[in-house]
Design brief:
It contains 6 helices and 10 strands, in the order βαβββαβββαβαβαβα. Bound molecules: adenine.
């Protein structure tokens, strides 16, 4: 079973509409929809915005459903000149830009425990999502995706995150879902279409472009599931 998590309804509803034999359960206030898409068993969840809800959802999903991989899909603000609105960011790794124990001598962003700043996403899953994005004619970049409990809307903060972590896109859940998957040894991918510039223009761009950007991410995930079903057919 593939787990798919979006923060907002608009990031998941397009996939939910494609579920065959849907079943819904609500656990800890999170709605989980199981079923299959193109014959591939999936569980879909809308986790809510921010790192705490994202972690709660990812851990619950892993404990309650037999997921062999988790994909976080949705939208993000761009942190680099190579990505504009409508383009696709895929995580080679995730960081948490608001994690900071540097007064104790640690690198900024270090996650205590694994003692890593960058938590690696699954390379094979990420490559497959990149190929699906390319097949849809979408411009795609693979790199670090930065997560924090902030809607990024200041050019200064955007530059700091880009320069400190080399991040290409910023959002509010991927790093948290990545951390939960990392400690549970579950492969994960973070797929984000760009809805805004993560600067002063973001409060206007985000509501204008989020729905269309999220719909493209849904098409990419759908393409991956279709490809997986074809691969299963020849197994
Ligand atoms: N998701 C989409 N745009 C974002 C932004 N500018 N900051 C944080 N999360 C986002």
């Amino acid at each position: 079973m593939i787990g798919i998590i979006g923060a907002m309804e608009l990031e998941i509803q397009g996939l939910r509409a494609r579920l065959d034999q849907p079943e819904t359960s609500v656990i800890s206030g999170v709605r989980f929809d199981t079923g299959s898409i193109h014959g591939v068993p999936v569980v879909l969840a809308v986790c809510g915005v921010g790192k705490v809800f994202a972690a709660l959802c990812a851990q619950t999903m892993i404990l309650r459903f037999p997921v062999r991989a988790v994909i976080n899909t949705g939208v993000a603000g761009t942190l680099c000149s190579a990505l504009g609105i409508g383009d696709v960011a895929l995580a080679s790794d995730v960081v948490q830009h608001d994690m900071d124990t540097s007064p104790l001598g640690d690198p900024v962003g270090m996650i205590s425990g694994p003692n890593l700043v960058h938590l690696p996403a699954d390379g094979a899953l990420t490559d497959r999502l990149a190929a699906r994005a390319g097949a849809l004619g979408l411009h795609c970049q693979v790199g670090t995706i930065a997560t924090g409990d902030q809607f990024l809307a200041q050019a200064e903060r955007k530059l700091w995150i880009h320069e400190t972590f080399g991040a290409i896109a910023g959002e509010m859940e991927g790093g948290s879902i990545g951390q939960v998957c990392y400690v549970n040894h579950i492969p994960f991918a973070v797929l984000r279409t760009i809805s805004d510039g993560a600067d002063g223009s973001a409060p206007e761009s985000f509501p204008a472009f989020a729905a269309a950007a999220a719909a493209d991410a849904v098409e990419i995930v759908d393409g991956l599931l279709e490809e997986m079903s074809r691969a299963r057919a020849v197994d």
